[in-house]
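Hey, quick one: can you model this chain's 3D structure?
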Amino acid sequence: MSSNLYDKDYHLWLEKTAQLLQDGKLHNLDIPNLIEEIEDMGKSQRKAVKSNLKIIFVHLLKYKYQPEKRSNSWLSTLFEHRDRLEEDFSESPSLKTFFREIFEECYQKARKKASIETGLPLEHFPIKCTFTPEQVLNINYLPEEN
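Sure thing. Here's the predicted structure for all 146 residues.
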């Protein structure tokens, strides 16, 4: 299969690639672009885990450090992004290892974002993450007020 199709009609390229795989015509595959797509799929999944984790951290920090501004919207966001991670881990259990690897990095970025969103000084939020991975993923967990 020509790599020109990949550049001209991505959707058709996907359909033809799937058909070639189903038919066992591996010698006709556009291997370089197929490899690139598979690698991109993995990157996309990891990027989604990072994004969801940072959003959860920001909302946990806001919930804990701005109790007077708590809203159902914050609770909904926490539920939605925890649910997304649960689904990701169900479909790809190995992503949970990645989640643990980036846990502290994501907390640090979320800490900065929470400071910007709340207007509270960065020092207001603990340097070391006070949430455990289990708490972050627990649909029912909400931090206590200070």
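One thing worth noting: The chain is about 70% helix and 0% strand.
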